[in-house]
Amino acid sequence: MKRSELFIKTRREAPADEESKNAQLLIRAGFIHKDAAGVYALLPLGLKVVENIKKVIRDEVNNAGGNELLMTSLQRKELWQHTDRWDDKKVDIWFKSRLQSGQEVGLAWSHEEPITDMMREFIASYRDLPAYVYQFQTKLRNELRAKSGIMRAREFIMKDLYSYSRTEEEHQKFYEAMKEIYLRIFDQVGLGDSTFETMAAGGPFTGSSFSHEFQTVTENGEDTIYLDRDRKKAINEEIYTEELAKNSGFDPGRMEKVQASEVGNIFSFGNHKSEQLGLFFSEEDGSQKPVVLGSYGIGVTRLMGVITEHFADEKGLAWPQSVAPFKVYLASVGEEEQVRRAAGNLYDQLTDKGVAVLYDDRDARPGEKFADADLMGIPYRVVVSAKSLEAGGSELKKRTATDIIIVDDNQLAESLTSSLHE
RNA sequence: CGGGGUGUGGCGCAGUUGGCUAGCGCGCCGCGUUUGGGACGCGGAGGCCGGAGGUUCAAGUCCUCUCACCCCGACCA
């Protein structure tokens, strides 16, 4: 895409009404727009990042048997009354509204109830199990206090997957498989080295004593975890005791207390919710049994925030290739006709080869183009100028490195297409 | 919801103990000169100072109420 055709405006200064690093940078770089506290719009580049994160998740989850669908944002009151979660005293983040008839409806903060209710139509027999469905959906949560930019918003995108299993054993098998899949997902978006499976509270409605979170170690993290780096596992401070650590196979003396950000959370619900909502199936012997339920979440926009903060430096964003909105920032420097032509040709050539190029074709000064390339965090920067042409091609520089090499067009195309998974 | 802070052109800010046509930087428009790390000159446009009420000869500045945003806390399935 040509920069002159991209809907974007970068800013030199951070907005005054944002303190968090993620929001300041994402707004400065033109990835998001703030509309209200905890309410952010995704601009073209931000949307690309979200779509890229979704693709990583989608590929892994589909591989594990997930079926993508899309539930609704309007939800029925009775459904939530069955599980005793409609009352504002029980769930204090509800947004609620009314139909013109006066009937109350809820705005989706979670989809466990509606999706499980829907399953009654599709699950009648052990032959229908297991079933794994998921979606990327906007969650609306009336948080008492939105904070930390896109890390804790009132409206955000979440991947939520639900598993419906015949037995506890079958459920456990999938649950364990999902742990691996989650780690692979976080690895692919660049957080593999600092993201850890973490034991956390099961929660009052989950029917199990623990859930598992995936926590990314980061200095601004809102959670505190006790981490065993060798085992690559941790325990959330909320539930941490030395006894629990020992019983879970940890050596409390070797655990490190660190700040972290939650990027994923998985739950076992047992069959309690199925009983409440009436989701039963016929066993081989004809007996009726409740379905065993699990849920698996990843906050997509929150993950974008964690990635932002994890990789950002003093010059701005620095996306891992797997989620970057473009792979290459191509900048022409100088207004000479031959430079223009060479840059335009290079743009066509790379684009034809499937490389995602953002071509800065503006009549702007070099410093401005470089600053934008850095701020936007595009993994590679390619510069075409009279100087580079004289040296035999264009300049190639990684966002995270300082060295610059001169490459001819063929070398460039080759190194950019062969480093797709870097 | 408790505590603290901030609201002044699109963005970032300044504005004395109340005082006359409300400033500065960035951005924007026009012309010209520039072109390897966010250029420069000249000329422009753009603001009822978050909102409502009050005190006063006079309010961006003082008082009351209110709204929004940020931070800390509580909360976070």
Describe this structure in words.
The chain has about 425 residues and is α+β, with helices and mostly antiparallel strands. It has helices at about 20-30, 45-65, 75-80, 110-120, 170-190, 240-245, 270-275, 300-310, 335-350, 365-375, 385-390, 410-420; strands at about 30-35, 40, 65-70, 75, 95-100, 105, 130-140, 155-165, 195-200, 210-215, 225-230, 235, 255-270, 280, 290, 290-300, 330-335, 355-360, 380-385, 395-400, 405. The longest helix has 21 residues, at about 170-190. It is elongated, with a radius of gyration of 24 Å. The two termini are about 20 Å apart. The strands form five sheets. Strands 9-10-13-11-12 form a five-stranded mixed beta barrel. A five-stranded mixed sheet has the order 18-17-19-20-21, sandwiched between helices. Helix 1 (about 20-30) crosses helix 8 (about 300-310) and helix 2 packs antiparallel against helix 5. About 30% of the residues lie in helices and about 30% in strands. The model has no long low-confidence stretch (mean pLDDT about 95). The chain folds into two domains: about 5-310, Bira Bifunctional Protein, Domain 2 (BirA Bifunctional Protein, domain 2, 2-Layer Sandwich); about 330-420, Anticodon-binding domain (Rossmann fold), CATH 3.40.50. It contains twelve helices and 21 strands.
